[in-house]
Amino acid sequence: MKAALRARGLHTVCESARCPNIGECFSKPTATFMILGDVCTRGCGFCAVDKRRAPLAVDPHEPVNVALAAKELGLRHAVITSVTRDDLPDGGAGQFALTIKAIKDTISAISVEALTPDFQADPAALSLVFAAAPDIFNHNLETVPSLYSVVRPQADYRRSLVVLKAASMAGLVTKSGIMVGFGETTDEVRSTLDDLREAGCAAVTIGQYLQPTRKHLPVKEYVLPEVFAAYEAYGAGIGIPHVYSGTFVRSSYNAEVFMNTNRKEAR
User: Is pLDDT above 80 for 33?
Assistant: First the structure.
């Protein structure tokens, strides 16, 4: 799997973010492609993606290389994410659109999930991605609003909700995710789920935050399985169609399962 990715100079968030599910996903094989390089312009306290070097130049061949790699790997559902590129005029939205198009042009029977940064909630940038018609538009809140100053100091909770609402209003299947274990309260998680329902999210993932290195935010709490189950039940109870909640749940983990479920329900 790694050989196939390196042969085309591609990155995955699975590797860069040190995801605990990498062994399972790479063995399937599935992967979440990370476009626009592997250096982020933001410094979130939970994320292991590199932010110490200057961001890489945008690779014009990347969209086609991602599409060809997806074809070689026999993927039926491709997840495309990226580092945040606040240095680019469109935040990298154009590269997302080109990559989605390249995949769909290369593989006829494939679904594409775009897991995007917030693009500063710029309507023009968002429109580029929406027009490319990803089968799922995914943007993560990551945590509850009270913890943004620590967990996501360069992001904005309300801005991310604006992005999700815009995707939903554009007619896209919209998805988001949060992590728990940062010190949030149960009521805060429930309130966040309320906000995601209001934003039109069809799917929400909730997983345990795990400290990737000693330099990152410490884990304040290891959430019990019954608490994850209660969050899932609450989300379902307020009308979110799909809620996946558990210790090792991640935003793009088993993304194909949700896509297949969504297809069956649409029939």
Answer: yes
